[in-house]
Design brief:
- It is a single chain.
- This protein is mainly alpha-helical.
- Helix content is 63%, strand content 0%.
- The chain has 9 helices and no strands.
- The C terminus is likely disordered.
């Protein structure tokens, strides 16, 4: 129902913000492959590359489609466009932490330590000590509980 209301608003006022709200509502209520959201992102891609909000919604779509590489590119772009919004760097760091490449995972861990005690982002304590995923969990490239974090990005 929310998607339909957002679509009506976007039809009356087809702004970037309203279209992104439709895409976001679609991501939260429709099943894979999230056709409505994918169509909106594809439509806006050529004209909205200078919008951090666009890149965040595109990253959310990429995450839902399990394309972490594309999500990382979008979070990186959002971080460049909004350098004072540390949530983009936080999201990118969490994705890096989950990388099967130990060097990238270590880079993500080190970036996350900079967020310890950051009240603005709600990080109350330092991240757990992290050994590269490949050595800590055998060949698995997933940290326990990452799926719960991934769903909130």
């Amino acid at each position: 129902m929310l998607v339909e209301w957002r679509q009506r608003v976007a039809a009356l006022e087809p702004t970037l913000e309203n279209k992104l709200l439709v895409a976001n509502a679609s991501l939260n209520s429709q099943p894979t492959p999230f056709r409505d959201a994918a169509e909106i992102i594809q439509e806006l891609e050529s004209t909205s590359g200078n919008s951090a909000a666009f890149h965040v919604v595109a990253a959310e779509l990429a995450l839902k489609l399990k394309n972490n590489e594309l999500a990382s590119r979008h979070f990186s772009a959002a971080a460049v466009l909004e350098p004072t919004n540390r949530s983009h760097v936080l999201n990118l760091s969490v994705l890096k932490l989950n990388s099967p490449d130990a060097a990238i995972a270590c880079e993500g861990r080190e970036a996350l330590t900079g967020f310890s005690g950051d009240a603005e982002l709600g990080v109350a304590r330092p991240p757990v000590n992290h050994v590269p995923v490949a050595t800590r969990f055998g060949t698995s490239n997933k940290l326990p509980g990452f799926a719960a974090i991934e769903g909130r990005l």
